[in-house]
Amino acid sequence: MKKHNFSAGPSILPRSVIEQASNGILNINNSNLSLLEISHRSKDFVEIMDRATTLALDLLNLNNKGYKAIFLQGGASMQFLMTAYNLLENKAGYINTGAWSTKALKEAKNFGNAVEVATSKDANFNYIPKNYSLDSDLDYLHITTNNTIFGTQFHDIPKTNTNLICDMSSDIFSRNIDFSKFSLIYAGAQKNMGPAGTTLVIVKEEILGKVSRTIPSMLDYKVHIDKESMFNTPPVFAVYTSMLTLEWLTKIGGIKSIEEKNIEKANLLYNAIDSNDLFNGFAKKEDRSLMNVTFNLNDQNHKEHFDRLCLEANISGVNGHRSVGGYRASIYNALDISSVKVLIEAMNQLNKLV
User: Fold this and answer.
1) What is the pLDDT of residue 323?
2) Does residue 354 register a pLDDT over 90?
């Protein structure tokens, strides 16, 4: 029986992508070799890497605009320090909207003057800060566009005269925005693009090479760009599956098409929460995420009943993060609207039980 996978990450992937990736493990490109055992410098895998980076730039409308796409390792957590290592010379600003931006700021402070220009910590990160001022001497401004734990999202991208750096791990390729506003985007694959093991970095080349410090080769964006993501052995399976996911997204109409589906899913679920007296949403309405819907029961005495209803409906991965509690439905690109309807039905069934 079908499982309805609302996991926040590693998360749901298109079924067709999983099947293609499985076939690649058995026999890649009819070579009678597994993807897992061919050289990363073989023609087969070089073509995979080239296709993945090209698709990423095409989908973001950044091809031939001075950007490079590279696939690295270490997750977004490695990018917390790589961004500062490569870009922080005098001062950097961070808008702190949750656990991951808190960690990014912490790492940046190891490299220089990294300042928190705004935060929503005062309300346990249930909103996106607004009406803040930015210093004119920032090397860059760092934001996390979507906050998986708290269910908030930047719907208006900050205006700044400096480089805008973004952790887009959980909402990349999910909505149609002007990606050229960003000088650097990074995203761990496992939330909306592929399996754990690789991180996509999109960087405008002209911003590199400006810091005075010596950057270790493994942490230097320029080195990875020059070596076309092959400075060391890349995570072949994660890159391949990400490529397949980007192909799937292209075939169904790209970001504009998937955004329409994501908005429909989110509106359906938020309306169900708001119209049900047994539930309440965690995030402020104007800042609600299209990817991670956080909500809670008004009466915790109903928890056992609701959890059982979810289990019986084959709903998986809806438990909220320990710092928020309650429930979190991650409705990433690959999640079909039918799964959202099953969750809503479980919520409605609770009304009949209590």
Assistant:
1) 86
2) no
Catalytic residue among 44, 139, 171, 191: 191
Out of 44, 139, 167, 220, the active site residue is: 167
Instruction: For residue 135, give both structure tokens.
Output: 């210093």
CATH of domain 15-251: 3.40.640.10
Q: Nearest-CA neighbor of 315 among 347, 288, 292, 285? A: 347
The pLDDT-based confidence of 250 (bands split at 50, 70, 90) is very high
Catalytic, 159? Answer no
Strands 184-188 vs 163-167: parallel, antiparallel or unpaired: parallel
Query: Residues for the chain: how many in total?
Result: 354
Q: 10: cis peptide before it, omega within 30°?
A: yes
DSSP-derived letter for residue 159 is: P
Q: What is the pLDDT confidence band of residue 227, given thresholds at 50, 70 and 90?
A: very high
Of 98, 130, 102, 126, the C-alpha closest to 114 is 102
How does strand 279-281 pair with strand 163-167?
A: unpaired
What pLDDT shows up at residue 50?
98
pLDDT band, very low/low/confident/very high, at 213 (cuts 50, 70, 90):
very high
Percent of the chain with pLDDT over 70: 100
121 tagged catalytic: no
C-beta neighbour count of 161 within 10 angstroms:
9
142 is written with which tokens?
């760092």
Give CB contacts under 8 A, 24+ apart, made by 269-276.
Answer: 269/293, 269/329, 269/331, 269/340, 269/343, 269/344, 272/344, 272/347, 272/348, 273/347, 276/347, 276/348, 276/351
The answer on pLDDT for 1 being more than 80 is: no
Name the token pair of 159: 């205006």
CATH of 253-353 among 3.40.50.720, 3.90.230.10, 3.40.605.10, 3.90.1150.10? 3.90.1150.10
- What does the domain layout of the chain look like in residue ranges? 15-251, 253-353
The answer to whether 139 is a known catalytic residue is: no
pLDDT band, very low/low/confident/very high, at 2 (cuts 50, 70, 90): confident
User: 3-class SS at 59?
Assistant: helix
